[in-house]
Amino acid sequence: MNDGLSSNSYIDLPCIHDSRGDLTFVEGCNHIPFEIKRVYYLYNVPVNSQRGGHAHKNLQQVIFALSGSFRLILDDGKSKFEFWLRDPTKGIYINKMMWRELDCFSQSAVCMVLASRPYEEDDYFRKYEDFLSEINL
Ligand code: TYD
Predict the structure, then answer these.
(1) DSSP string of the chain, one letter each residue
(2) CATH code of 66's domain
(3) 0.85 exceeded by the pTM?
(4) Is 54 a catalytic residue?
(5) 6 pLDDT exceeds 70?
């Protein structure tokens, strides 16, 4: 496992810092490479919980740890890439056809996901073997 995924995978957001605290913002098609059609977040995640376990046919996403930390494993069907997210200004871009697993959530972790499409259950591969079959077509 490595984190040698394309440097395009890392998203750096601005941080406006002053004595009142930090402010970070994100603009679709500017800081991230798509128009934002949906935002969702995971919270109250038990520390031993595992999320993800699927890939998307067309959806692109960018994932952030707004609070706390967690591990993200991406799998393109050939290699696995490991990331530890803990900085709200640093996201990981997830292209379509990437199997993802999230685990090792810290207490009170909040995972925010920006997505290029509305929720569409038809867009999911929920079985790893179906994902691999599509990759190897
Ligand atoms: P899922 O994408 O499997 O969650 P995770 O990747 O975090 O493990 O979604 C969990 C459930 O929530 C599933 O029943 C679909 C539903 N859901 C929506 O209704 N809308 C959404 O935008 C998302 C992301 C999930």
Answers:
(1) -B--S-GGGEEE---EEETTEEE----BTTTBSS---EEEEE-S--TT--EEEEEESS--EEEEEEES-EEEEEE-SS-EEEEEE--TTEEEEE-SS-EEEEE-PPTT-EEEEEESS---GGGEE-SHHHHHHHHT-
(2) 2.60.120.10
(3) yes
(4) yes
(5) no
